[in-house]
Amino acid sequence: AAAPKEKNPFRPIPPNEAVRIEALRALKILDTQHEEQFDSLVSLAKRVFGVPIALISFVDADRQWFKSNIGAIEHVPQTGREESFCAHAIMPGADPVFVVLDAL
């Protein structure tokens, strides 16, 4: 029998992960083109909050994919889930507003 997977604190998995991934994939939004509606929301968020980077991301099984991103990471379409702040934001008990003051 395979050994149980060790929990990785850099890759938190919510208890509803299977249902969440199924719902995300049913949206058929992953790997789609940028859309003006999403880009407008991200641009507005960047201006309102006065931040250098703003984005809309979706946390898939092994990656965080950016539907829209403005700022220093515009050329980056996705990151691994281990590098994802959003993987922490979707955990039960996380604050409803997830603010990263300094990502460096």
Keywords:
single chain, alpha+beta, 27% helix
What do you see in this structure?
This protein has 104 residues and is α+β, with helices and mostly antiparallel strands. The chain has helices at residues 17-26, 36-49, 86-89, and strands at residues 54-59, 63-70, 78-80. Helix content is 27%, strand content 16%. It has a 3-stranded antiparallel beta sheet with strand order 1-2-3, covered by helices on one side. The longest helix is centred in the middle third of the chain and has 14 residues, at 36-49.
In short:
With 104 residues, the protein is α+β, with helices and mostly antiparallel strands. Helix content is 27%, strand content 16%.
Morphology call:
globular
What string, H for helix and E for strand, traces the elements in order? Answer: HHEEEH
In spatial order, strands of the major sheet run 1-2-3
Main β-sheet: number of strands, strand sense, barrel status?
Answer: 3 strands, antiparallel
The span between the termini is 41 Å
Proportion in β-strands: 15-25%
